[in-house]
Amino acid sequence: MRVRTGVTGLMAAACAGILLAPSPAGAAPAPEASRAKAGSYCVVKVSTGKTTCYDTFREYMAAMTGGRITDAPAPEKAATDKKFQARLNALATAPGAMGEAAGASLYENGHFGGRAIGFALDEPCKNDGRWDAQVSDLAARNFDNITSSVMAWGNCYVELYADTNFRGIHNTYDKADWVGEAMNDQASSYRLKARGEAVN
Questions:
Q1: If you ran DSSP here, which 8-state letter would residue 103 be given?
Q2: What is the DSSP code (8-state) at residue 62?
Q3: What's the number of CA atoms in the CB half-sphere (13 Å) around residue 18?
Q4: Which of 43, 82, 109, 171 would staple 114 via disulfide (CB 3.0–4.6 Å)?
Q5: In what order do the strands lie in the sheet with 156-163?
Q6: Contact of 116 with 142, CB cutoff 8 Å
Q7: Per 3-state DSSP, what percentage of the chain is helix, strand, and coil (rounded to 5)?
Q8: Would you say residue 25 has pLDDT above 50?
Q9: Handedness of CA 100, 55, 177, 163 (dihedral sign)
C-alpha cells in the first residue's frame, strides 16, 4: 500500500432553503474497462481535513468506514450489492458506533470506476439545517470536472455543483452509477446534507 498525506481544512456552513433536486434521467454509459492507478483512492477525513490515498478500493473502503468494513466488493459491484449497502448504512445507526459513520465518494468514471475521492464523517449527516461537509473548489483536491458517478451513505446526500463556490447547475444524489449528461465531468464543488433536508 502506498500512502500520501496532506492537510486541508473543510468547513460546514449554516444555511436554509433548497429542496432536493431529482436525480437525472437517462442511461449510464457502459462501465469503463480501465482500472484506477495505484494511490488513486483518496480519503478526506472531514473533521481534520487530512487526506490519505490507497492503492485498492478495499483499503479505501476500510479507511472510509474507520476499519469496520474490510471486505468491500469491487467498486462496480458496491452500489448494487444490497448486503454491502446495508452494512454501510448500519454504520450510522449502530449504538455507540466509533470511527467513520457516514460519507460520500466521487468517482472519475461511470459505474464507480477510475479514481475516487471520499469524504468520511465521524457521525451521520444530521437534519439540523446545516451542510455536513463541503468543498468549494474541487480543483484543490485534484478532482475538478471529472466526477461521473457518486455514492453516499449514513443518512447523507451529495449535492454537486457545476461551478466553484456552490454555483451553477446542481443536482442531488444518494448513489448514481452515472450523474447524468448535464452534470457528467462538470462538478467543481460539492456539499453533503442529510436525506430530505432543505438547506442552501
A1: E
A2: H
A3: 21
A4: 109
A5: 133-135, 189-194, 156-163, 167-173
A6: no
A7: 15, 30, 55
A8: no
A9: positive
Q: What is the pLDDT of residues 27-58, one digit of tens each?
A: 555 444 345 566 799 999 999 999 999 999 99
Enclosing H/E stretch for 64: helix 57-64
- The C-alpha cell at 198 is 432543505
Residue 39: CB atoms within 10 Å: 15
Position of cell 495505484?
A: 38
Question: Structure pTM?
Answer: 0.79
For residue 8, which of 50, 46, 40, 41 has the smallest C-alpha distance?
Answer: 50
End-to-end CA distance of the chain: 39
CB 175 within 8 A of CB 151: yes
Q: Name the residue with cell 452515472.
A: 178
